Amino acid sequence: MSFRTFVCLLLLITSSFSFAQFQHLQKNGSVRVQLFFTDGQPCHLRLRVVLWPKANYLAVSQTFTSDECRAEFGALTSGEYYIEVSGMGIENAQSPIFEVGQTTQSINITVKHLESAAAVPRSPTVSVTDLNIPDKARKEFEKASVLIAKKDWNKALDHLNKAVASFPQYVEAYNNLGVVYARLGERDQERESLEKAVSLNDHYAPALTNLASMAIVDKNLPQAEGLLNRVTAINPADVPSLVLLAKIELLNQHFEDALATCRKVHSLQHGSEALVHYIAARALEGEHRNADAVTELHTFLDEQPTGPSADLARREMAVLEQQIN
């Protein structure tokens, strides 16, 4: 399969059908994710949890862990999925493929701390104004955070609105408003809140990342690429955002950019990140560098011999090797 054919099929799968064509699919399944650390430490990191369909490389949804290291995805179409977990200070983790039907599926994932996790610096995303937040606004924000962990979205919304009313420059509160509005299905308010956060601090990476996620859902991949470039410029060591950027650059057929982003990931202390080899292979194939693509696929399979992508990689490698010979 050529790269052009792959991209055309992927975009056909993900963007060409009308809403009416999907009305027959059930969207009432859900997934509950619980993370455990191999060293038995309590949950103290805010980790990104991404739900991917087995069939393609456009994420269904992403969220962040609660204080109890939990995450949840709801209103899912029946099908096969897998979970990726990433964040500063941990090795990226991936679940096996699982099936979602009309009930709640519980997924447990074990996560390993990087040896240098304690030395990981905080990303420079907090504005100066957020360092001078009045007590009244901060208390409302903290109440909202507790309610978000409990998934009590409406009450959380009330407290966040009180927080920004008390302190209109509260960047993190506007970002969390966006998260809550997303849970409530209010996309216009979600976008407005996130854009407000960015207008107050254009280096606030969480809001930029959330806007990029909206752009991916909207199939606006050029906008997503631009936003993720801003995120990775703010924090060049943010491996999860770099990997997502490489995926989007690949889908936008910016092959050299995708290869450069993959090289950045390789240069970082990031634990196991086999997926960048697969992305690099697809970019090399797009440049008709089939021998180099086969080398990347071999490396990918050495690092990830099983999982949702391994069988596809083997089939693609066999086709490329035939073309070379």
Q: What's the β-strand tally?
A: 8
What's the alpha carbon Rg, rounded to whole Å? 20 Å
What can be said about the biggest beta sheet?
Answer: 5 strands, antiparallel
In the CATH hierarchy, the third-tier topology of the largest domain is known as Serine Threonine Protein Phosphatase 5, Tetratricopeptide repeat
Give the helix tally. 12
Report the sheet-strand fraction: 15-25%
Give me the secondary-structure category: alpha+beta
Distance between the termini: 16 Å
CATH architecture of the largest domain: Alpha Horseshoe
Overall geometry comes to globular
Order of helices and strands: HEEEEEEEEHHHHHHHHHHH
CATH class bucket of the largest domain: Mainly Alpha
Low-confidence stretches: 1-26, 116-125
The share of residues in helices is 40-55%
* Rounded mean pLDDT score: 80
How many domain regions?
3
Let me know the CATH homologous superfamily of the largest domain: Tetratricopeptide repeat domain
